[in-house]
């Protein structure tokens, strides 16, 4: 819950609490706050137990975390270890790591090669055809659109 709070922020909050409430009232305030948190937690636990008892014995292993949309969808679609829709295969086929591996370039339109951003590759692109004259339009390539 507070995983993104650093040490400096905690120290700042402690110093501000001492300045605002004073060192004599701060222990009583912390004690009252912890008591309130315990009461809220016990109220939530008793409410969960009441709901479980009202649902009956078939829902004794019911967890409220399963109602979170991500968990609910994962549990309903995946069904535990099963994969009836083949989502694991689809996820594996879209794995970006396989794209980033050092594989030979796939030929596109019969031309093999790979994309390079080196300055030495610029003359190779110019050798694809004669240079254009000023005001001349490049030829239309239906495969490029």
What's the layout of helices and strands?
Blueprint: H1 7-21, H2 26-55, H3 69-78, H4 87-93, H5 96-100, H6 122-126
Which keywords apply here?
single chain
Question: How would you characterize the overall build of this protein?
Answer:
The protein is mainly alpha-helical. The chain has six helices and no strands. It has helices at residues 7-21, 26-55, 69-78, 87-93, 96-100, 122-126. The protein is flat and about 85 Å long.
Q: Average pLDDT, to the nearest integer?
A: 75
DSSP strand count: 0
Largest sheet: none
Distance between the termini: 49 Å
H/E topology pattern: HHHHHH
Global morphology: flat
Percent helix = 40-55%
Please outline what is shown here:
With 145 residues, the chain is mostly helical.
């Amino acid at each position: 819950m507070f995983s993104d709070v650093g040490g400096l922020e905690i120290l700042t909050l402690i110093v501000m609490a001492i300045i605002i409430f004073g060192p004599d009232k701060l222990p009583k305030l912390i004690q009252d706050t912890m008591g309130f948190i315990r009461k809220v937690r016990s109220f939530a636990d008793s409410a969960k137990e009441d709901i479980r008892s009202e649902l009956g014995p078939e829902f004794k292993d019911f967890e409220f975390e399963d109602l979170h949309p991500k968990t609910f969808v994962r549990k309903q679609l995946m069904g535990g270890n099963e994969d009836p829709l083949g989502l694991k295969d689809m996820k594996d086929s879209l794995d970006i790591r396989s794209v980033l591996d050092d594989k030979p370039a796939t030929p596109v339109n019969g031309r093999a090669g790979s994309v390079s951003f080196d300055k030495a590759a610029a003359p190779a692109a110019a050798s694809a055809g004669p240079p254009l004259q000023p005001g001349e339009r490049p030829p239309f390539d239906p495969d490029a659109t």
